């Protein structure tokens, strides 16, 4: 099932996306904005990763594609899905190219993913975390998409010889519904 936003389409990863994903993972400009570690990744590593996640029922990884041009611009998804407690972890990566920044693609991708998580899968909560200096992601989640700051893990991420805080964010289904009602996002 494809998930449609206003500007983007979220779809399953295909074999032809693996080179894009490897390049996204290996991009040092992307790595500085996310909290995980980023060891160099070969194509063989990328293919092994794809095989592993394709069998995982607690992970849904999705390509972010522009609806009008079908350009692949990023990755999002749900992982560590807890089907009993109806929660999942999420995040977003968009390629480091100015022509895709500040155009609403990130907001649309997060909103479409929330729709899928809350309306289609019946989840009740989504969680994420953001490195303290990633102002664009903090603004995206906290100001544009209605998420709440829930805490800080102090000195939790090591980048460029220094430790940084990890900002913990989350949203509940009821907050998503209030956001829709207030902003008429899908209307």
Topology, element by element:
Layout: E1 3-4, E2 8-12, H1 18-26, H2 28-31, H3 43-54, E3 60-66, E4 72-82, E5 87-94, H4 105-120, E6 125-131, H5 135-144, E7 148-159, E8 162-172, H6 173-183
Parallel strand pairs: 5-6
Antiparallel strand pairs: 1-2, 2-3, 3-4, 4-5, 6-8, 7-8
Note the main attributes of this structure.
187 residues, alpha+beta, Aminopeptidase, 8-stranded mixed sheet, 8 strands, 34% strand
Q: Would you kindly provide a brief summary of this structure?
A:
It contains six helices and eight strands.
CATH superfamily: Gcn5-related N-acetyltransferase (GNAT)
DSSP helix count?
A: 6
CATH topology: Aminopeptidase
Tell me the total number of β-strands.
8
Strand and helix order: EEHHHEEEHEHEEH
Tally of discrete structural domains: 1
Query: Unreliable stretches, pLDDT < 50, 5 or more residues?
Result: none
**Based on the structure given, which CATH architecture is correct?**
3-Layer(aba) Sandwich
> Helix amount, in percent?
25-40%
Radius of gyration: 16 Å
| Structural class based on helices, strands and sheet pairing | alpha+beta
Strand content: 25-35%
Distance between the termini: 21 Å
Coarse shape: globular
CATH class: Alpha Beta
**Can you list the strand order of the major beta sheet?**
1-2-3-4-5-6-8-7
Task: Report on the biggest sheet.
Answer: 8 strands, mixed
**What is the arithmetic mean of pLDDT?**
91
């Amino acid at each position: 099932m494809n998930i449609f936003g206003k500007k983007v389409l979220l779809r399953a990863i295909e074999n032809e996306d693996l080179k894009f994903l490897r390049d996204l993972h290996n991009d040092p400009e992307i790595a500085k904005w996310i909290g995980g570690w980023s060891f160099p990744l070969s194509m063989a590593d990328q293919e092994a990763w794809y095989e592993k996640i394709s069998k995982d029922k607690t992970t849904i990884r999705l390509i972010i594609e522009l609806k009008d041009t079908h350009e692949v611009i990023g990755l999002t998804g749900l992982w560590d899905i807890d089907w009993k407690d109806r929660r999942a972890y999420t995040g977003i990566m968009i390629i480091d190219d100015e022509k895709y920044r500040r155009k609403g693609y990130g907001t649309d991708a997060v909103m479409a993913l929330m729709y899928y998580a809350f309306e289609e899968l019946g989840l009740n909560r989504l969680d994420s975390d953001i490195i303290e200096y990633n102002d664009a992601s903090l603004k995206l989640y906290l100001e544009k998409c209605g998420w709440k700051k829930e805490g800080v893990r102090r000195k939790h991420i090591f980048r460029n010889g220094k430790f940084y805080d990890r900002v913990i964010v989350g949203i509940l289904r009821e907050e998503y519904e209030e956001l829709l009602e207030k902003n008429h996002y899908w209307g």
